[in-house]
């Protein structure tokens, strides 16, 4: 079987990687590191391993939405040394001057990051001056297979956004629970693509078409939240979620470990879906930037990247990590999509202020149901 990583890279457009010359040994760091990361997004031994290797104490806090992180960053004086925004948020935050450029001499392990994936990131962060890729993945559907089939029939197609975006179908799932990410930058591009429109459109009439699509499904959505769906799926409390690939796969693992009779699966819908990158960046006012550089370098060690992917079921961009990864992770097309699936994915892109305003108005209208 061809390496899924090779299949992945053949579907991406190469852009030159500029990370600067790496010194053989990163600068020494000491003291304390304040790390702010997504929930359920690191291996159990990552922080202890870093502390043991460097002697740096880590305070580790978590959030569950880009909006929460962005509000803190734009307010300033966060006290954090290292944060993990998604690519499109990182792009506009770079433009706002909230991050310091990376000192690549302190991060020799940057050499392991795939040039084509870093090339994509260079479209958001010119010259790869501020960010390195932490993990990447897709947004799709998390399903309680038995509950969905019980309500929609054994022959229902499970590989379609119809389950969520067709009012007739989702209305039959409302009684068993439907969660949606509280993230307009996720659902709105997906809805545009589902309608056959450009996910990066700036046309007001396209956003009106999305509103016409979404408003009829609003009564059938139980909750908007960007982390609770993981346990809700695993426990059998909901039957459908719009969620992130690794989160849903974690829910599937938790259900299997609990042996609670719940079968959860993650689906990349046939209509296509969003592909995104989460990045490692250092706030401009970081109290300990040397410690942040040391942590980035540690996270990019092949064995460490592999251990995180093995634990959280998200893809990493580390070419040297593959030999250390579980075969079940490396060969899972839901994590490392093959060419056929990759062709249906579209990357997230930053938008203009005008689009941001239209999207925000649409999202508020959708959530309130007014």
TrEMBL record:
The keyword Transmembrane does not apply. GO terms for biological process: polyamine transport. It comes from the Bacteria. One of its GO terms (cellular component) is periplasmic space. It is found in: Periplasm. The keyword Cell division does not apply. GO terms for molecular function: polyamine binding. InterPro entries: SBP, Sperm_putr-bd. Keywords: Periplasm, Signal, Transport. Gene3D superfamilies: Periplasmic binding protein-like II. It holds the Pfam family SBP_bac_8. Residues 1-21 form the signal peptide. Required for the activity of the bacterial periplasmic transport system of putrescine. Belongs to the bacterial solute-binding protein PotD/PotF family. This is Putrescine-binding periplasmic protein.
